[in-house]
Write a structure and sequence with these properties.
Length: 122
């Protein structure tokens, strides 16, 4: 192929994993163990923009593989941002004391279900 793949298709030739730094990194501040979401700060994985993040992994949780396949197949714009309108939980969940215990291991963001309320500015 003599033409640049990205110029022809609008997509890069490969998918860059967000766990691989792309240069000079400036992580988003996070204060693990803070008593509320605002004081802790957002947990960010970033596939677009300036590449700033403070977590390794990808957004979309268990659906991230489907997102990656859709992007690779050209069925989803890699810069797509989900609309989180009306995504608040049906019932209040937490906060619980262990959410602010820095000695606990947390594999999921305990405030993830409140992302559109807690981090609307970001």
């Amino acid at each position: 192929m003599s033409e640049d793949h990205a110029a022809v298709t609008g997509r890069p030739r490969h998918i860059v994993l967000n766990s691989h730094p792309t240069g000079d990194q400036s992580p988003i501040a996070m204060h693990w163990g803070a008593v509320d979401a605002a004081a802790r700060g957002p947990i960010v994985t970033n596939l677009t923009g300036d590449g700033r993040h403070n977590a390794i992994g990808t957004h979309s949780g268990s659906y991230s593989i489907y997102r990656a396949l859709a992007v690779a197949a050209g069925a989803l714009d890699p810069t797509h941002r989900p609309d989180l309108t009306n995504t608040a939980p049906v019932t209040r969940i937490g906060p619980h004391p262990q959410w602010s215990d820095p000695s606990r291991i947390v594999s999921l963001d305990p405030y993830g279900h409140l992302v559109s309320q807690c981090f609307s500015e970001q």
